[in-house]
């Protein structure tokens, strides 16, 4: 979501006549786009902001802005900590910065707007905010309540992305499955996917993140039926124990989650499913963690994003619950999940050995091309030609838990 917001702001600044600088030291405007989903992310933003002090000192005219989830409704405290920051903007509140930027730029300095190319695989937000208020999560407080973009807006943006080089879009939202409920005609994600599937030049559509309580059978059937929609679903379960799920305010039970995965795999046997899991939520006992571990063994996800619980100030969990799982226990649980998952992903990826997969080439790293399959597997291969943005067939010759390697067919 932050990448998409940054691209959007950069695009608006380019339209005003600004161009990309080589480094923050050379820039007239520096915007730090912040994420506070975990404490470590917030710490990194604070350290970046500290480093920008030197820039402000050597160039007092430079405009320094902090954007994103770190900026809550009350940002006086932030201002006190970072007095060299000129502007504080909540997520997507670009207006004041663009007004100031437009006043500052002189016509002489303005460069002509030429739409910049976008990556072959790019992001398009479809719903902002979240109404769910999971007790550990700061997002609803910082990004506000759900606001969906009308289908026609999304289609326009996707078309513009295709004109600028995109082949694949990932539709973004904190909870994409609740897309459309706030719009007049009440379209849902299935309607949006169906419309986008007909957009010329668009090759692949992804979406994230889904919420187990909102993923409908109609959506599952629609994904299965549409040829451009990738067979990859990101479906966080967060905990394997019903009491912990209730304390997290996740609004589903593990049995309901298990049945949902069953329905998805029945309709799409080759679908890849990734998930998110929190270990060490307040009150999580060893036995409750074992249930998460067993669910991973049972359901065998293609990827697991696992995080140790850390309290975020302002959330219900931080206010009303005691962070009573010792850091060592959290770390041990995280390590166990990672070891298990490495084994599961090794098994899943080994099955792809000698098969041929379709890969959208997204870039070149150290002389090797890389891209992803529709099931979100990262694939590396060698070729001397420029294949950026092309969809190629790769025969898989080597696998690891995290990526695949192969040769062009
Ligand atoms: S659904 Fe996701 S974004 Fe919304 S409150 Fe829960 S964890 Fe946060």
CATH superfamily of the largest domain: tm_1862 like domain
| Element-by-element helix/strand order | HEHEHEHEEHEHEHEHEHHEHEHHEEEEE
What is CATH's topology name of the largest domain? pyruvate-formate lyase- activating enzyme
Query: What form results from the Cα inertia axes?
Result: globular
Strand order of the largest sheet: 12-13-14-16-15
Contiguous runs where pLDDT drops below 50 for at least 5 residues: none
In angstroms, what is the radius of gyration?
22 Å
Count of beta strands: 16
Number of domains: 3
DSSP helix count?
13
| Cα end-to-end separation | 35 Å
The percent of residues in helical segments reads: 25-40%
Rounded mean pLDDT is 94
- Spell out which ligands are present: iron/sulfur cluster
- Assign the structural class, choosing from mainly alpha, mainly beta, alpha/beta, alpha+beta, or little secondary structure: alpha/beta
Can you name the CATH architecture of the largest domain?
A: Alpha-Beta Horseshoe
At the first level of CATH, the class of the largest domain is: Alpha Beta
Largest sheet: 5 strands, mixed, barrel
Strand proportion: 15-25%
């Amino acid at each position: 979501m932050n990448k998409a917001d940054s691209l959007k702001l950069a695009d608006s600044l380019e339209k005003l006549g600004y161009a990309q600088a080589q480094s923050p030291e050379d820039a007239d405007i520096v915007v730090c786009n912040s994420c506070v989903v975990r404490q470590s992310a917030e710490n990194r933003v604070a350290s970046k902001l500290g480093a920008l002090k030197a820039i402000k000192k050597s160039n007092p005219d430079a405009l320094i802005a902090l954007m994103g989830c770190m900026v809550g409704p009350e940002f006086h405290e932030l201002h006190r900590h970072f007095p060299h920051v000129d502007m504080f903007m909540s997520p997507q509140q670009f207006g004041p910065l663009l007004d100031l930027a437009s006043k500052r730029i002189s016509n002489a300095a303005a460069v002509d707007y030429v739409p910049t190319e976008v990556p072959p695989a790019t992001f398009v937000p479809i719903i902002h905010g979240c109404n769910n208020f999971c007790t550990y999560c700061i997002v609803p407080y910082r990004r506000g309540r759900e606001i969906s973009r009308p289908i026609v807006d999304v289609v326009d943006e996707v078309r513009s992305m295709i004109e600028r080089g995109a082949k694949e879009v990932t539709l973004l939202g904190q909870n994409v499955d609740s897309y459309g409920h706030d719009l007049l005609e009440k379209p849902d994600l299935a309607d949006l996917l169906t419309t986008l599937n007909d957009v010329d030049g668009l090759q692949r559509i992804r979406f994230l993140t889904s919420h187990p309580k909102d993923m409908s059978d109609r959506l599952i059937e629609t994904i299965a039926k549409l040829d451009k929609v990738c067979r990859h679903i990101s479906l966080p379960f967060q905990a394997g124990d019903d009491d912990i799920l209730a304390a997290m305010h996740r609004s589903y039970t593990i049995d309901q989650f298990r049945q949902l995965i069953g329905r998805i795999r029945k309709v799409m046997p080759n679908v890849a499913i990734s998930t998110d899991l929190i270990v060490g939520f307040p009150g999580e006992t060893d036995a409750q963690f074992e249930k998460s571990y067993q669910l991973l063994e049972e359901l065998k996800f293609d990827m697991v994003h696992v995080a140790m619980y850390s309290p975020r100030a302002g959330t219900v969990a931080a206010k009303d619950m005691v962070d009573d799982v010792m850091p060592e226990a959290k770390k041990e649980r995280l390590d166990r999940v990672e070891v298990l998952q490495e084994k599961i992903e090794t098994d899943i990826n080994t099955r792809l050995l000698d098969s041929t997969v379709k890969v959208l080439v997204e870039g070149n790293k150290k002389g090797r091309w890389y891209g992803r399959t529709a099931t979100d597997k990262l694939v590396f291969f060698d070729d001397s030609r420029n294949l950026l943005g092309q969809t190629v067939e790769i025969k898989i010759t080597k696998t690891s838990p995290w990526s695949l390697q192969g040769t062009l067919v």
